[in-house]
Every structure is written in structure tokens, then in C-alpha cells.
Amino acid sequence: MELTNYSVNKLFPGTNRKYVIDYNNDIDINDKNNNIAIIADLISENSTVLDVGCSFGYLGKWLKKNKSCTVYGIDNNKEVLDFVKKEGYYEDVYLINLDDITFFNAEIINSIYTSEIERFNELPQIFDYIVVADVLEHLKTPQTSIVFFAEKLIIGSNLIISISNIANIDIIFNLIEGRFNYEEFGVLDNAHLRFFTKKSFAEWIESVDEYLKNINKEFKFDINFIGSTIYQSENVKEIISKNPIIYNLLKSSNPEIDILQNIFALTKIQKDDRVFGFSSFGKNFNAIENISQTLKVLVDFNEKSLKEIDHLQKIIKEKETIKVLFLSITHQIGHGVPVVIAQHADYFLKKGYTVYIGGPQGYNDFSYSGCNRVYLNNYLEAALFANKYGISCVIAHTPPFFSTLKHLSPAIKKVIFDYGEPPAELFPDYVERKLVLIEKKSCYDVADKIYTISNTIKTESEQDRAEVIKLGNNHLAVWNKDMYFLREKIRNEYGWKEKIIVLNVARFHSGERYYKGIDFYADVMKYIKSFNDSVVDNYIFVLCGKAFQSDILYVKDLSLQVIANVKDEELVELYAAADIFMNFSKWEGYNLGIAQALAFGLPIIASDISAHREFPIFVSNNIYKIREKFLDIVKGIKLDEVVNCERNPILFTWISHLQKFEKEIRILCR
């Protein structure tokens, strides 16, 4: 069974199998590619929920059993509602055909459903959530239902909607082939009357808000994107396997083409309240223009040119220096990857290489003294540049440039330098991150060499042939006795005299706080301070990192002292002023903050993850053991002598790792 185009067009009423009960249809809350699981995970415990299109009550049963929710249901099939009543998990159910509600004057059409609609109308505003999963596509006037449901929703609560994505790649491919074939299920369900993309759905909700204004309603909607599910049909997989360039071209122009369903939360707000969500849906992919430009370049860069370049490269290789191209999506100061590239590039220059640094132009980029900086905005531009200008070796450091390796001339050596990717499950944009990981893994096969920054990342890569090139920290600021004056100065400026300062350095934007363990850091602070100890007021927990104003306000509410968006020299001052360093990231490939803390000789407490275990530090995820270690460290700190502390920096040098890396690249290219 395909969920997009079918082999033949089945646009006719099918069997009643949509209402055949599946007794094994339990919800797996960990399945992030299932719209019902995503919705169930979103709903808070002890909520009152309306399940529209409840069918046999799978969602309500799960919410009742696992989250103690009070659930009501609506469906237009009496048989399934009789079953739901018998099961007993729903508070009440209503037999309603949503198309029997008129849109213009909210009067009820005479039908068998009239009494049920009137009974539902008697309900007060009781719902914390109204779930409309894969229902609106079936309705003649879906806006009728939006208004109808919203009347029963508490202000500030959410209408959660799952909707099919008509812009799925399978639909696109089949339209090109002249097919638009309906099925009994999926995007082209033969009962579907309405079709949406992510952006067009948001635009439609804007028009619903305009309608609510025109009929003088006291409420409207704000919109937020919750997530999506992905799906590739067997037809699409076959096309990708035979013609990957077509798929990659479309994917680079519109990253949403693998989406099967989009999930939105419509928040009911007062009519005069400000909306924030609609602006995030305004992105224009310029897909047609991007495809046109790329195809023009590819046509111009024909097979004859590639053969000529291959021939010239063989001649040049014997006469010229090795030309190496480092690729990264960011070269901005403050990010870890450019720091590593700068170390590599400088060493390669000293060894006689011609070094090119490729990637988009950003704000406040590294200067990369002595290197040739080229602005390349995507992996195809990078491949064309490398092929045209006789690059000897391409070293890709970040997505999307791993995909460059698939489009290089055979004469060019292909290297992946892998920092790892955090588990997609730690982020709200799970689907997009999962697709990036899938694409990176597909690039391993074409790489001549794979290097990782740690044993942790080698294990995660599942590539036995990967080699570890570790990072150093001796390029960072290092504690010395001349910093005692700086330490005293900064502590006095912040009012930290005779205080114990705990420092955590991590980005804390909303999408990264969970992954960076910011809430656990706050929990550790609260737990340590919860004991009736006369000195707890002397403990100051500081969080330093990049953030927006909304993130700063959020963290301040956690009672942490926030110092955000500092310059490099200011960050060094904070390390000098600190007494203890803590970090509780849920994943890291290499923790630069810990590396800097070691260079300052700070005692460190960190989460027990694989990358942290590679440092000579204390690690634990047990809050009780963390407090014990903290108190053990504090015992050795005298508040009246806190400025004149002793520090023993721990340094890891770059040189041996740089020597190994350069030697292997030279052998590979010769």
C-alpha cells in the first residue's frame, strides 16, 4: 500500500476497511515519524481533550491510560462510536457530520446529526486541546469546523492539526509522469477534497483569522509548526537509486519534499492580541530559479571539460603543490569548526600546500591568513569549483558539503572530517536533522578517507575504517600567575567577592537548551541550594553563551546568572574569575568549553556522556553524586583566599595530531 500515488487511479468509493478495528494499534510515543505519537507526546497530563475523527478511539484510550486525560470524541460513523462507548475511555462522544454545519450563519442543517450538534453546542469552553488529525482534507468547508471547534477551546489553548503534504516528492515525480492517482489511504485518499502544503496551510489560517474579524468574533488564531513525518515511496526510492542527481537537485531547492504530514498548533488568542507564528512560514525557496541556474551550470560544464580537467590535473599534480579545499557551512568566530580548520590550514600552509577555504560568507568570519577564501553557498557550487580549478583534495567538515564528494572528478581525493551530529531526537526539527544524518552516511561510501575528532564520534559513525585525529587545547588562553589581578578585578566588578563561582559555557537558544542540558544545570543549582546550609548564598551559578533576548529571560527565570553574547576576551575573563566549571550536555562530539576549563586548571563536573569520558574529569548524571563532588571541591576553597587560588592547567597539544593528518593527506594525494 502506497501513501502517495497509486499504480492505478482508484477515485471511487472504496470498501469500509478504514473502519476495521486494529486491536494492535497501540501508540509508540518514541516513534517520531508518526503523527499520532507526536500529537500524543505534545498533550499535557490531566488535560481535557476533544478528539475529532476519533475512529475506534486509539488516541483517547492512550491519553486516558498514560496521561490521565479527560477525552471527548467526534465521528460520523455510528458503529465506531458504539465501540468507543463500550470501551469506556471517552467521557462522551458525538455523532456529527462536520459538513452539516453551515458556514455563513452557523445554523444547523436538518439531518440525522442535528440533535448531536445541538448537544455538543451545549458544552462550555472546556477543552485544553482539540485534536484534528487527518480530518480537514475530507471536508467541503473546513473553515466551518475550525470556527465550530474554537468556540469550545479555552483561550490560550491549542487546536492541533495534522494535514497531508501535497508537495511530497512522490506527487511531484508522478505529476511529471502525468499521473495523479487516488488511493484509499494517504495523501491522495479518494475521499480528500482539500490539499495543502506547509506554507499554504499557514496562509489559509491567515484568511480564517480575517474571516473571524469580519464576523466580529472575539478570538483569532496564532500558528506554530510542531513537526512533520517523512515518507518515500518505493517508486521514489527507485528513482533516487537510478537518478540521484534529480532528487538532489529538487531537495536542495526545497528541503520539505520528503514530508508526508505537517503538524500545526493553532493557539486561540484574543482578537486584539499580537500574532507571532505566521512570519516563520514566509520563506521562499526560489526553487525554480535555483533549479534553472544549477542546470545551466551543469550543461555548460560538460563531459568534455571534465576529461580535459582530469588530464590537466594529472600533469599539474607532478609539477605543482597540493591544492586542498576545506569546506564548512560556517566560518564565524565563536563556532568550534572554524577553530579546527584554522589550525589545520595554518599547518598545511607551513608544509607548502595551497589552501582554499570554502563556504558561505558570514558575519565576523575567521580571516584564515595566507589562505584563499572562496564563497561557495552549496555543495554543487563547491563541486564545480573543485573540478574547474584543479583541487587535489576536498576535506568536508560539515553538512551540506559532505554531498560535494558525490560530484567530484575521480582525480580529486575525497575526505570527510567528522565532528558527529547530535541525536535528532534532542531537537524540535527532528525530521530535518534525521535527513541530514541519512545523507551524511550515504557520503561515507564515496570518501577516500574518513577522520573523526574523537573515539566517541568514530563509534557513532559505525565506520571501522575511520581514523581519529584528536583536537588540542593549547591554542586557547592558558592560566598563568599574571591572571590573579584579572581574576580579582572581574570578581569585584560582578560583586563576586568571597563567592564560589560555578561557570557553564553553552549556547542556550530555545532549540538547543534541551540538548545542552540547561534545565538540568538549573536543577543541580536548586538541589545544592535546597539544603539548609549557611553558605549556600555564597554559591553563584553562571551561564554564559550565545542567545536571543527571549532565551535570556527564560534562563533568568531559572534563577541562573546570565552573561550572554560576550566577546572572546570577556569569556577568558569569566574563566579566570570562576572556581568550578559545570556542563551537562546530553551529547557532544568534543566539548570546547571543557577543553578551555582544563587550560585554566578549573575543577570540572560534567554529564556522563562518551565524549566527556575522554577528558580527565569527573562525570556523572546522578544529581546526588554531583552535589557530593561539588561539596568536596568547595571544601578545598577558602572564601577569604579565593582570589589567590592555585591552578594547574591541563593541556593537549595539536602538533602530533596535525603531523599525522598532514602526512596522510600527502600520501593520499601523491
TrEMBL record:
Transferase keyword on record: yes
Recorded coiled-coil stretches: none
Xref: SUPFAM superfamilies: S-adenosyl-L-methionine-dependent methyltransferases, UDP-Glycosyltransferase/glycogen phosphorylase
Pfam families noted in UniProt: Glyco_trans_1_4 (PF13692), Methyltransf_23 (PF13489)
Presence of the UniProt keyword Transport in the record: no
InterPro entries, sorted: SAM-dependent_MTases_sf
Keywords per UniProt: Transferase
GO MF term list: glycosyltransferase activity
Protein's name according to its UniProt entry: Glycosyltransferase
Taxon lineage: Bacteria, Deltaproteobacteria, Candidatus Acidulodesulfobacterales, Candidatus Acididesulfobacter
